[in-house]
Design a protein that fits this description.
single chain; 102 residues; alpha+beta; Alpha-Beta Plaits; four-stranded antiparallel beta sheet; 26% strand; globular
Length: 102
Amino acid sequence: MKLQFIKAPTVGVMQMLSRRAADRERLLTTNPGAVGLVQGMLADMIAATDVAEKAAEVWVEEIRGICPQHFTMIAILGDIAEVGAALDAVRKRFIDKEHEDS
């Protein structure tokens, strides 16, 4: 699983995400303080969405890619602190756990 944290995303970032999201209008008309990107296996992305939404006041968009049946990406959107908290929860649930199991 890969995570990225974008603070104060540019218009270009939001346009790029909107071309691959179901709710294109919301992405184009909202100016979130931050965007968290999480990429991985489909089942993990669904579970990561649940973890993120329970951990913080964020909204999550599925970002369609070239090969969605194997890998997908979600965008976690909201203010900087909330997106940071959501990413931390995802990291603890998935990435830190992987290192513990090794």
